[in-house]
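User: Predict structure, ligand magnesium ion.
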Amino acid sequence: MDLSQVLKQCKHLAQPYRIHDGDGFRLKQIDPGDTQDLPADKKAAREALEQGVELLSELQQRLYAQNKWAVLLVFQAMDAAGKDGTIKHVMSGVNPQGCQVSSFKAPSALDLDHDYLWRANQCLPERGRIGIFNRSYYEETLVVRVHPELLAKQSLPPELVGPKLWKQRFEDIRHYERYLSRNGVVVLKFFLHLSKQEQKRRFLERLERPEKNWKFSASDIRERGFWDDYMRAYEEMIQETATAHAPWYVVPADHKWFTRLVVAAAVIERLNGLDLRYPEVSPEDRQALAKAREQLLAE
Ligand code: ATP
Ligand code: MG
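Assistant: Predicted complex:
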């Protein structure tokens, strides 16, 4: 594998979708069906992803050995955009000990008794690890915004709930991610950008193919009815929270093979930029190792 070549490809793949300054961002700037004119050759895509996965695994070993940085990958998307499959494929080569996935569903009674970052905070990756959030605290600016009755359930003091609430949440999230980045947690955020048409196709497939039935839930269709509200919420979320230290990647999601390549490329590029190294062995350590070897051989 020619490393510099792969890294160059990664940059090429990921950069068009990287938003590090949300000002003026519009969702329509990125086409969900985009594949950068790569041929839809599944075998070639699989081979490229395999190379990426191998490189990712090597980078993760160094991340783990160095034990300084932690990496947080946040995934947000509409239903059927391919979050689960992307996480599974991109992380397939990574040592499970160095990686943890947390899925955020509707909050429990205990969660609701705390501030909304509380449950996420408990799932942050340790140094040396990659943490994946399958949905995240961003739902607090998405589903909770689209369905105001969910906000009512949060029992916030009424004087704190006003028209400024969403701006304040964005501000708090920006500061939270700034805080994380200053503590050595590298934050990368992925919005898998699916078209409404392709979602329909995937829902129909789930309904028509028995082995896919389990993936379907009636609430998915209900949320589809709020499509435009969600798109507005996503757009503003990206405008407000895309920063240099915690960028959003708006990844075209109508072609799964392409989504996976872009996500792998973005993670590889960022990890490679951390200049991860195995810890150096000091001369004293080296002496101790030599002595241990002698002892073993003398047995
Ligand atoms: P997914 O839909 O992510 O593939 P799933 O189908 O296994 O996962 P669901 O039971 O659908 O899981 O749980 C996800 C649901 O939880 C989503 O509809 C999401 O909007 C909701 N959710 C997540 N975080 C929150 C939150 N903070 N407040 C309210 N609802 C939330
Ligand atoms: Mg669901």
